[in-house]
Protein: Acetyltransferase (GNAT) domain-containing protein
Organism: Pedobacter steynii
Amino acid sequence: MGKLINGIFGGFHGRIGNLVGYTLKGKYIIRKIGRSSKPLTPGRKANCQKMTLVNEILSPSLPAIQVGYRLMVAGTDKNEYNEAVSYNKRNALQGAYPNLSLDYSKVLLSMGTLPAAIHPTISQTDDKITFNWEPTADQAYQYGNDRAMLVVYFPDLKVSRCDLIGSKRIEGAHTLNIDQEHVHERMEAYISFVKDNGREVSDSAYAGALNARKTLEILEKADPEAERSNRDSDYAGSDFDIISYREYLLASGIGVPEPKSGPDKIITSRWSIYVLKSRVSDQRIGDCYLRLQQNDKFTAEMKVSIAHEEQRKGYAKEASSVMISLLFNKSEVNRIVKIVDAQDSAAIALMKSLGFREEEHFKESAFSDGKWISEYQFALLKSDWV
C-alpha cells in the first residue's frame, strides 16, 4: 500500500499496483515495476548486454565509484553509480551486439579536474600488488599531497580490491595486499588521485593487467564456409544443446549476475562455463565447466553438473563426451584431468567408460562434511580419444 506525501499533489511512498513511489535526492520518483511479456527487441537485448558488462566491473568497485563520481553529481538529482554506468556504457565498450566486450583501458572509475596519474604501471610479488607512477616536480607543490585511490578488479571472479586512501602523489608508488587465493587470477588495475581535503578528484588512469593469459581459448575454423561453423552451440547431446553461459544470458534477454556454485548456479574462478539446455522443455538441465591448469595451457580440468531431477538419464556421460571433443578439437589442450572422490563409484565408472586412466591416489587429501576423504586423479590424452 502506498502512502501519500503532502496530499494529492505530492508524491507517494510505497507500492500501488504495478507502480512504486519513493524519494530520491528530494524529488518524488514513480516507476513501473514488473516484467513485460513482450519479446525483447534487438535494441533492448543489446542494452541488456551493455548493462551486464558495465555492471560487472562497476558493482564490485562501488566504494571507489562513490568517491570518484561524487563531485560530478554534486548539486544534481543524479547518483554516482548511475553516472558511472552512463559514461562507461558510451565509452568503454567495444564490438557490436551480440559480441560486445569491455575495453578495460577505457573504463573510468572516477572523473574530475585533478591531473591524472602519469605513466602508471602495476607489478606483482606474490600477494602484493605495487602501483607506480611518475611524480613530477611541477606538480609537487600544488598536488604533491593528493592521495592515490587504487582499484584492482578480478574479471573472472567479478570482485574488486579497493584502497581509497593510498600513498601521496609525490611518493610515486603504493603497495596493496590481495587475498592469497587471488594471486594467480587475472587482474585489471586503475589509479585515481583525490585531494587531501576531498574536494577534488582526478580521472582514473588504467595501470595495466596482470595474469592476463589465464583463459581457455576455443579456436575457430579458418574456413567460414566449412560444413559446421564451429560455434559452441554446434556441440550438442541427443536431447539438449550446449551453449556458452554468455550465449545463454543473451538468449534469455536478461543480464543476471552469476551465482556461485551448483547445477543451477555458476562457478566463476577462471572457469569457462557452458549450459546444457533441454530441447524439449527449453530449460537449463546442467552445466559444464572447463579451465586450464595453472601455468599449463596444454592441460585442462573438466567438471559436469546435472540437475538432480535430470540425473540417471545418461546426460553426464553424453555432455562429458561432447566437452572432451570440444577441448581436443578446438583448443591446444592435449590432456584432460579430473579428480573424484575415491568413494564415488558412479564417477569412477564414468571416468573409465570415457577412457580416462587412473594416475594418482591421494589418501585423505580433502576435508569434507567433517571428515577426511581420499581422491583419485584420472587423465585422458588427446591421442587416446577417438
